[in-house]
């Protein structure tokens, strides 16, 4: 079973939501965020990436950044751009991209469920990124960005959610980045809140889809608060963190492509041909249409690669396409052993399209690019259920949850 509960959301008014809502802090560089922030003083980036309001020579990890985030959060509330709901509620968050809707339950989940393994992960975290969000949560005393969780679809939850949406108007309804439509409903009926809460008590596990660093950070701050406030009850807000829960059958994983800056040996294609069937495609972008196939962009041309059966990998991890590429190309041919730390490789989310791979290679920033077939949701859940860890940068989810629509106050300062 997992525990969810309603909370007093800190959120914008219906009129201001479209201006406050921003892309997540971790999909934008400081430079990109600064440009968006300059043109929009109400952007939540002033809270989630507060370095944009400081001098360009200030490190994003400087103490002043977290203090600025805290003061900006207070200022947004003083100006009425954000306001705290009077009573605990649940919320529904629907995103529609390319005509495909996905509807999640905005709630608070328990840090104890993460500690016990009822909230399952499939990725490792990087220490510097984790420390950044720990400090952000700790200093602001708030979860400012939601964790994107999923679960195996439940008939009762689906019925309750569909019934609420069918009989209530959304409090937010706007279009934002990449043409995605965002709709929010407040679930303020105590009986419906109880039904949903009890329904999740019968759901055995939640899975982190996106937000491993935010989850680790929220949990560690919560555990820290327990030490600081030993007399606080089990219902203290810091024992819970902000999450949005989506049924897995509504989600789609996009490709997470690779660009690499390495010298290309004269016999490189011959080496690749030992393990892959190769087709030279030419100028037309090659987007893999099935597992065990890859696109490769080199010297202005696209190639289609299909791994030979004996090199396809065996087991829940080794058979993933990201593992096959690493095991058969990146490591043996390029010497890239750890893609989390090797600065010769970078990653491009599928939302940016394959043209970005071409541009990065044609500009000389990288020498070769690979387009990937994405893992499935079943792949992700199977890996997590097996207690395994996916290779880094395996999954790219779209559409992204916007930040600024909900803040969870830890209420400990």
TrEMBL record:
It comes from the Bacteria. InterPro entries: UCP033563 (IPR008323). Pfam families: DUF1015. This is DUF1015 family protein. It comes from Listeria rustica.
